[in-house]
Amino acid sequence: MSLSPASGIGRFYKHSAKIIRFARHGCTNRPFFHIVVMERRKNQHQPVIEQVGSYDPLPNVTNERLVALNTERIRYWLGKGAHMSDPVAELLGIAGLLPVHPHTYMTAWRNRKAAAEAAAAEAVKPAETA
């Protein structure tokens, strides 16, 4: 769709900053996210340029979180200079498309530390009862 140059919208749209981010869909207590490319200034519920993937954060029956990515289009938009939100950068790092995001390392470190503390507390608990 080409817009007339007099409208001014076409020029802005072509050169405006783009971002790859989540757009929340689904019901209350049942989120589902589309991974979309849109103008950076717009709200997540306004029209998008392109949907490049989807993400279901709730585990299914086999304890999997489902992700679908169109890596070819994501690489295209990144090549065009699109920015990424932090949650999308984390997800693409886990998927192997980008380097792992530092926040992912910190979350894993906190989870390991909490598990070690829980195991130590569990080990002390039987010793006290004996």
Beta strands, count: 5
Strand order of the largest sheet: 4-3-2-1-5
- Which structural class do the helices and strands define? alpha+beta
Distance between the termini: 77 Å
CATH-level-4 superfamily name of the domain at 1-84: Ribosomal protein S16
Descriptive notes:
It is found in: Mitochondrion. One of its GO terms (biological process) is mitochondrial translation. Pfam families: Ribosomal_S16. It is built from 4 helices and 5 strands, in the order H-E-E-E-E-H-E-H-H. With 130 residues, the protein is an alpha+beta fold. The chain has a domain of 84 residues: S16 Ribosomal Protein, Chain: A (2-Layer Sandwich), CATH 3.30.1320. A 5-stranded mixed beta sheet has the order 4-3-2-1-5. A hairpin with a 2-residue loop joins strand 1 and strand 2. It is elongated. The termini are far apart. The mean pLDDT is 86.
Write a concise keyword list for the protein shown above.
4 helices, 25% strand, 130 residues, 5-stranded mixed beta sheet, alpha+beta, S16 Ribosomal Protein, Chain: A, elongated, single chain, 5 strands
Helices and strands in order:
Blueprint: H1 9-15, E1 18-27, E2 30-39, E3 50-56, E4 66-69, H2 71-79, E5 83-84, H3 86-95, H4 102-129
Parallel strand pairs: 1-5
Antiparallel strand pairs: 1-2, 2-3, 3-4
Question: What can be said about this structure in brief?
Answer:
This protein has 130 residues and is of the alpha+beta class.
